From TrEMBL:
<feature type="binding site">
    <location>
        <position position="333"/>
    </location>
    <ligand>
        <name>Mn(2+) 1</name>
    </ligand>
</feature>
<comment type="function">
    <text>Isomerase that catalyzes the conversion of deoxy-ribose 1-phosphate (dRib-1-P) and ribose 1-phosphate (Rib-1-P) to deoxy-ribose 5-phosphate (dRib-5-P) and ribose 5-phosphate (Rib-5-P), respectively.</text>
</comment>
<comment type="pathway">
    <text>Carbohydrate degradation; 2-deoxy-D-ribose 1-phosphate degradation; D-glyceraldehyde 3-phosphate and acetaldehyde from 2-deoxy-alpha-D-ribose 1-phosphate: step 1/2.</text>
</comment>
<dbReference type="InterPro" id="IPR006124">
    <property type="entry name" value="Metalloenzyme"/>
</dbReference>
<keyword id="KW-0464">Manganese</keyword>
<keyword id="KW-0413">Isomerase</keyword>
<dbReference type="GO" id="GO:0008973">
    <property type="term" value="F:phosphopentomutase activity"/>
</dbReference>
<dbReference type="Pfam" id="PF01676">
    <property type="entry name" value="Metalloenzyme"/>
</dbReference>
<comment type="similarity">
    <text>Belongs to the phosphopentomutase family.</text>
</comment>
<dbReference type="InterPro" id="IPR024052">
    <property type="entry name" value="Phosphopentomutase_DeoB_cap_sf"/>
</dbReference>
<protein>
    <recommendedName>
        <fullName>Phosphopentomutase</fullName>
        <ecNumber>5.4.2.7</ecNumber>
    </recommendedName>
</protein>
<dbReference type="InterPro" id="IPR010045">
    <property type="entry name" value="DeoB"/>
</dbReference>
<feature type="binding site">
    <location>
        <position position="296"/>
    </location>
    <ligand>
        <name>Mn(2+) 2</name>
    </ligand>
</feature>
<keyword id="KW-0963">Cytoplasm</keyword>
<feature type="domain" description="Metalloenzyme">
    <location>
        <begin position="7"/>
        <end position="383"/>
    </location>
</feature>
<feature type="binding site">
    <location>
        <position position="332"/>
    </location>
    <ligand>
        <name>Mn(2+) 1</name>
    </ligand>
</feature>
<feature type="binding site">
    <location>
        <position position="291"/>
    </location>
    <ligand>
        <name>Mn(2+) 2</name>
    </ligand>
</feature>
Amino acid sequence: MTNQFERVHVIVMDSVGIGEASDAAQYNDQGCDTLGHTAEAMGGLQVPVLERMGLSNIRPEKPIQGVALQEKPSAFFTKMHEISAGKDSMDGHWEMMGLPVMTPLHTFPNGFPDELIEKIETFSGRKVLWNKPASGTEILKKFGERQMKTGELIVYTSGDSVLQIAAHENVIPLEELYAICDYCRKLTINEPYHLGRIIARPYIGDDAAHFERTANRRDLTLEPTGPTVMDRLKDAGLDILAIGKINDIFSGHGITEGWHTVSNEDGMNRWTEILDRPFHGLSFTNLVDFDAKYGHRREPVLFGKAIEAFDRQLGAALTKLTDQDLLIVTADHGNDPGFRGTDHTREYVPLLIFSPRFTAGSALPVRGTFADIGATVSENFGVRLPEIGTSFLAELFKR
Ligand SMILES: O=P(O)(O)O[C@H]1O[C@H](CO)[C@@H](O)[C@H]1O
Ligand SMILES: [Mn+2]
Ligand SMILES: [Mn+2]
């Protein structure tokens, strides 16, 4: 058997960071620790599968509460540092695929300029409400009922480079919302905006107590600024199966088949299904509930329960992996539910690498960039390596 795998699976636990990054102070994020604080809030995390893989071994000096250190972990383990300027999903995922975002995207802590808002109003024929940072669920409580009467657009942002539009599905039909978001996307690609994402945030419900955001969310990301590892794999004729918001994050580039999902559970079910079909290439899964439902909401116990649910599904799926599968479990940034504010946090992310082919795993050196994943995937499939990143493929076969 060669030191290559037929299939590589990357699963991104969106926002599940593993402690403040060395540059956290630059982001005013000192002390953040998504996994650590989540586990503490739970009185200990029950994640037997991640535990066996070596989750706590990633930081033996401060093990995750409830997650025992392993003498012989089943996976290779370490953590990764991000080199991208931002700490949003786009930065994290692009960097994994060899394309870090080194120039900061713009943020609008005081709202978007009048000029942009006026254009949105003219295009849509609707007035814009709020236009400031907000939590997406709080803003619905504040303005949702008003929107149901007036049809105004709820526009808000965050600490990330995002313009988000919340719209009740029965008041502003989805197709209309998507068209407005498309228009905003076109307007904000270049300076002075250079925005990472426009996000359509549809919701339903009869009143403030019952509003619920739906899975019809769409993220309109900037087009990747160069070829990613996925593009190179696609050019080489390989399969790239994208689950969850991966398709949105890469604007559909470098993907041969993709599925939007409605939840983490749905994403893991989808991934489990594709393990049953023959393909040659990469599966790339994003599980966004950790981030959207619990991290930004600062709900540590629900966050922890979601990690435990993920662990159960992961355990069941692992039985389907063969010697030809390499699994990489990681995250794209932090979003500490025990931290102040409602924004992402600048953290290291866990890296767990498993295959039934390994008899045991061990510690890998801390990775200086998420692009080490892209480099490893590229080396595995024999395509040109990205300009940055160091493959760890050979390290998995050292005796
Ligand atoms: O509060 P909600 O609407 O979930 O928004 C959050 O989702 C965005 C994307 O992760 C973040 O920038 C933050 O604004
Ligand atoms: Mn994310
Ligand atoms: Mn987020």
